[in-house]
Design brief:
The complex is a heterodimer of chains A (439) and B (511).
Chain A (H helix, E strand, L loop, with lengths): L1 H25 L6 H26 L7 H15 L2 E16 L4 E4 L11 E4 L8 E4 L2 H7 L4 E3 L12 E9 L3 H25 L4 H19 L5 E2 L9 H4 L3 E6 L1 H4 L11 E6 L1 H19 L1 H11 L1 H6 L4 H27 L1 E2 L8 H11 L11 H20 L7 H36 L1
Antiparallel strand pairs in A: 1-2, 1-6, 2-5, 3-4, 3-6, 7-10, 8-9
Helix pairs in contact in A: 1-14, 2-9, 2-12, 2-13, 2-14, 3-5, 3-6, 3-12, 3-13, 5-12, 9-10, 10-12, 13-14
Chain B lengths: L6 E12 L2 E12 L3 E5 L6 H8 L7 E6 L2 E3 L4 H6 L2 E4 L11 H5 L6 E2 L2 E2 L1 H14 L15 H14 L4 E5 L7 H16 L3 E5 L3 H7 L2 E6 L2 E7 L5 H9 L17 E9 L8 E6 L3 E6 L5 H8 L7 E6 L2 E3 L4 H6 L2 E4 L3 H5 L6 H6 L3 H4 L8 H15 L15 H13 L5 E5 L7 H16 L3 E5 L3 H7 L2 E6 L2 E7 L5 H8 L15
Parallel strand pairs in B: 3-10, 3-11, 6-9, 9-10, 15-20, 15-21, 18-19, 19-20
Antiparallel strand pairs in B: 1-2, 1-4, 4-5, 7-8, 11-12, 13-14, 13-16, 16-17, 21-22
The chains are: A alpha+beta (439), B alpha/beta (511).
């Protein structure tokens, strides 16, 4: 079994290598720093989902609700992060306007404000006020208490206009919003786990209901409208867009036609996407959980033989519950990452089919839908293979309608090769036994 | 020797290997028209594999099967049926949701204008039902029938395919006395008509009553053959075990200590109308006898918290324990070697090491969460050395072990928990003779170490040979308790069928 898992991982790694070589020959930019960065980043988004569903698959279950949990948690986060403005009661009279630098001179001193507070200036040509968002960083650089830099175009503002200062008001601390959204995922997981583990209901049906219901909920609470956070919450968006450090990769600068001379050295540098760093940490924890901890052993055992696990005193209901909790919580994390990446969530379509991509990645990575089999490194590799194939399709100039066909075929071939290998292995064993018998 | 011309079925040199075990090693048998042949042997002797080979369910690795003198390669059940061979499984294969006629004609329904011809079907079914003396309307739903009558439907189905060879795997295992009698009559009648019958049985009295000839298997090989005149209890046992029966069971009395397990008024979910009470003392091995369905397994699974009890009191060393889950049972010092080893005892595709640590992993874990790999290996080695599990390495998958060694892994798992009470359900089912003797030795050794051992067995000789005391159950009730001195096959059977209290009535329908 262990041996089989290892050959499986080797097989996926080989497949990955082939895809890289073939596509790089067709277009060297494929292994350029930018594309590698993108592959890593997108792999991380989907990898979080695949990692979660792997636990459910290993315990012998399935979770079809992931995509809808992505949408529901994304939209919840967007709602919790909404920024509102309140009149502070202070009016500022504008003394001068610099259209180039978007700077306004004021008659009075600028009162206390925070970044992204805004000025509402009556618009002579329309009903709505002209809204000017204060850029705190730029303003501070001026070091002038009577000047303020804004982000918007100021061409319609003239001296003498009076702007009302509006203070930004948030529903809650953005990190608290993230925590609450994760807890929403956890709650969904508990719900699934109770019904499936303790209620003995079928995971396919329960999570199918979830797939339908959570999508609908996401649309209801958002009035089926796209919700954005605009340019707010920059620090939070580090979670999906941050680059904590760079990783050296040999040769890619030379092959990948790096634009500047410095990048053409022996080592190319690829920024580490923050979500990938998160995924790697999660994978490490998952690996320890699955292979080093009692709970993980219980998961593997009950995935292979639920009855025997129960007869050995394993609380199979509780183990089932935890698998669904992990899955839905990670789905919510995925939802958070996807939402922060775009800064907007479309409740009707975001996350559609993501559960199937997650399951495909887990299965390609060696998880058996019969339960009890799977490795964390396989799941991560499986996700990277799928994302790399997507990227390949882009690079080879195929349009996106080809995408799922190619993923489908690769998955099919992977599973077929695995099954074939097993049959060959067992027929060799049988032959050996027969030889022993006749000898 | 019967001359070749009248031989219906002949198998010679049949071999079949499974991972870790050679099920059949050049086994031969023959069957003439109108003959009733009994195949006997210990569990794991290869009887079922041989029957399956003859019925096309299993493809032998080697050997030859002849039907009417013609060599055939039976590739599947349909093929065997077309040659006139029908197998009736131990676990019946009827579709519960269909009626008798639909079951008899399943897969070969008479058609009229492309539609199923119900009239022809019912007519044909009625004919075969009359033939075997089962006077039921063909439209009776199978789910309403007792196990015995379902068995009859299986036989009717075989006859309706104009089978000339009918193979029955332990046909009376779950039948009442009356039903058993009726089955005997049907077998006699079919034989008179020239049908060849092969049956597997563990009941030697039944073999004596029915068989014209006996073929004995032992450890996957032919062990001998008995003609009608030679068929006798001792002769059969000698061929089956390969030595005198007495050598397998070497009972020695042990010093009996204080009470370990005390059960008072235990009510199981399966038989809520009965209360079970008994106790076991340190050093005692108590056997539980009874017919299939007497509630013996349910008693063990209830004690172990698999199916929580409805009422009752359990004490271990005088201390009251609440057992609603297996985990609580393990904490209270109980261990259960379950009836179905492959489904409940072991995880087949996990290593011996992982199986052995399964029930004590948490207790030995670092901080209760992190697996202590060194400790896991040490315990795995210690326990399996103690039990002499035959394997090159602890990393071997349990599916590659023989039945006996798999059972030792189950025992190793429980020994690792340091049990005070060992519950065993059919501990030697599907285990070869050698391993059987070893398992008895382990039971005795544990008893010596003051573990209370309670085992359920359908093998009467085993109950008689191993127990210090026996409880006998009938329809969910403990109908009697027999001390070593009063322990006899007759006494057990009387209690198991509850003949003193009431005459055997029609069997209740199976659950």
């Amino acid at each position: 079994m262990a041996m089989q898992g290892f050959t499986r991982t080797l097989g996926i790694a080989a497949l990955l290598l082939i895809v890289f070589i073939v596509t790089t020959i067709a277009d060297p930019n494929f292994i350029g720093s930018d594309n590698l960065y993108n592959i890593l980043r997108w792999s991380a988004f989907y990898g979080v989902l695949a990692l979660g569903v792997a636990f459910v698959i290993i315990t012998g279950g399935i979770d079809l609700s992931i995509g809808s949990v992505v949408a529901l948690s994304g939209i919840t986060l967007m709602i919790l992060l909404q920024v509102d403005y309140k009149d502070s009661g202070t009016d500022l009279t504008i003394a001068g306007v610099d259209k180039e630098t978007k700077t306004l001179q004021l008659v009075e001193d600028m009162p206390a404000y925070s970044n992204l507070d805004r000025l509402a200036v009556p618009n002579p040509g329309g009903a709505d006020d002209i809204l000017l968002t204060i850029d705190a960083a730029q303003t501070e650089q001026l070091n002038d208490s009577r000047s303020v830099v804004v982000r918007e175009n100021v061409s319609r503002i003239s001296p003498g206009d009076v702007g009302g200062l509006q203070a930004q008001s948030r529903l809650m601390n953005p990190w608290l919003a993230v925590l609450l959204t994760l807890l929403l995922g956890t709650a969904i997981g508990v719900f699934h786990g109770l019904l499936i583990g303790y209620g003995g209901m079928q995971p396919f049906i329960i999570t199918l209901c979830g797939l339908l219901a959570y999508r609908s909920l996401a649309r209801i609470i958002s009035n089926d409208e796209v919700i954005t956070i605009g340019s707010h919450h920059g620090s939070l968006r580090y979670l999906s867009g941050g680059q904590p450090f760079e990783i050296p990769v040999p040769f890619i600068g030379r092959i990948g036609n790096a634009s500047d001379e410095a990048a053409r050295g022996f080592l190319g540098w690829v920024p580490m996407p923050m979500p990938m760093l998160t995924l790697l940490i999660l994978a490490l924890i998952s690996g320890v959980l699955l292979h080093k901890m009692v709970h993980g052993r219980y998961m593997l055992a009950m995935g292979r033989n639920l009855e025997a696990a129960r007869f050995s005193g394993i609380n199979t209901r509780r183990v089932t519950l935890t698998a669904y909790v992990i899955c839905s919580t990670l789905a919510a994390l995925g939802g958070i990452l996807f939402a922060l990446d775009l800064g907007a969530v479309t409740p009707a379509t975001d996350g559609n089919f993501y559960e199937l991509y997650a399951i495909a990645a887990a299965v390609l990575g060696g998880c058996s839908l019969r339960g009890g089999v799977g490795s964390i490194r396989g799941v991560i590799l499986g996700t990277i293979v799928i994302i790399t194939l997507y990227s390949m399709i882009n690079f080879l100039g195929k349009s996106s309608e080809w995408r799922d066909l190619i993923i489908g075929v690769v998955l099919l071939l992977g599973i077929a090769a695995d099954e074939l290998g097993r049959k060959v292995y067992s027929s060799i064993k049988t032959r050996q036994r027969r030889k022993k018998l006749s000898g | 020797m019967t001359s070749d011309t009248t031989l219906l079925l002949q198998a010679s040199g049949i071999s079949k290997a499974y991972p870790g075990v050679i099920a059949l090693d050049r086994v031969s048998m023959r069957l003439s028209a109108g003959e009733v042949l009994a195949i006997i042997g210990e569990n794991g002797a290869g009887k079922s594999t041989l029957m399956k080979s003859l019925a096309g369910l299993v493809t032998p690795d080697g050997g030859e099967i002849r039907v009417d003198g013609e060599p055939v390669k039976l590739t599947n059940v349909q093929h065997a049926m077309s040659k006139g061979i029908a197998l009736i499984h131990q676990e019946l294969n009827l579709a519960d949701n269909l009626d008798i006629a639909q079951n008899i004609y399943l897969g070969r329904e008479p058609k009229r204008f492309g539609l199923i011809d119900r009239k022809a079907m019912n007519r044909g079914a009625k004919e075969v039902l009359d033939e075997i003396g089962l006077g039921l309307p063909p439209t009776t739903s199978v789910s309403e029938l007792s196990t015995g009558r379902q068995q009859m439907v299986e036989i009717a189905k075989a006859i309706s395919t104009s089978a000339r060879v009918i193979i029955m795997d332990e046909p009376t295992a779950s039948l009442s006395d009356q039903e058993t009698q009726r089955l005997y009559d049907v077998v006699d009648r079919l034989a008179d008509k020239g049908v060849g019958i092969i049956f597997i049985s563990h009941r030697l009295a039944e073999v004596k009553r029915l068989a014209h000839r006996v073929t004995v298997l032992r450890d996957g090989k032919n062990a001998g053959e008995l003609s009608r005149e030679q068929i006798g209890h001792d002769a059969m046992v000698r061929l089956m075990v390969g030595r005198e029966a007495s050598t397998l069971y070497q009972y020695e009395s042990r010093p009996i200590g204080e009470t370990v397990l005390e059960v008072k008024g235990l009510v199981t979910q399966a038989f809520p109308e009965h209360r079970l009470s008994f106790d076991i003392k340190a050093g005692e091995i108590v056997g539980v006898a009874g017919l299939v369905g007497a509630g013996r397994t349910e008693m063990l699974t209830t004690l172990f918290g698999i199916d929580p009890p409805l009422a009752g009191e359990v004490r271990v060393f005088g201390k009251r324990v609440m057992i609603k889950t297996p985990r609580q049972a393990i904490r209270a010092g109980l261990a259960l070697v379950p009836e179905d080893r492959k489904a409940q005892g072991v995880v087949l595709d996990m290593a011996i090491r992982e199986n052995t640590s399964m029930a004590s992993l948490k207790e030995r874990a670092i901080g209760g969460v992190l697996i202590n790999t060194a400790e896991e290996r040490r315990v795995g080695k210690e326990m399996n050395d103690k039990l002499a599990t035959k394997t090159p390495t602890l990393e071997q998958l349990v599916q590659n072990l023989s039945g006996g060694n798999q059972q030792k892994v189950v025992l190793a798992k429980w020994l690792a928990t340091g049990p005070k009470v060992l519950l065993m359900d059919e501990p030697t089912r599907g285990v070869d003779i050698g391993a059987k003797a070893e398992i008895y030795r382990i039971m005795e050794e544990l008893a010596h170490q003051n573990v209370a051992v309670l085992f359920v067995s359908s093998d009467l000789e085993e109950v008689l040979g191993v127990s210090d005391r026996a409880l006998v159950m009938h329809e969910g009730q403990i109908t009697g308790e027999l001390s070593r001195d009063s322990l006899s096959a007759e006494a057990v059977m009387a209690l198991a069928t509850n003949t003193q209290i009431s005459q055997v009535g029609p069997a209740s329908s199976p659950s």
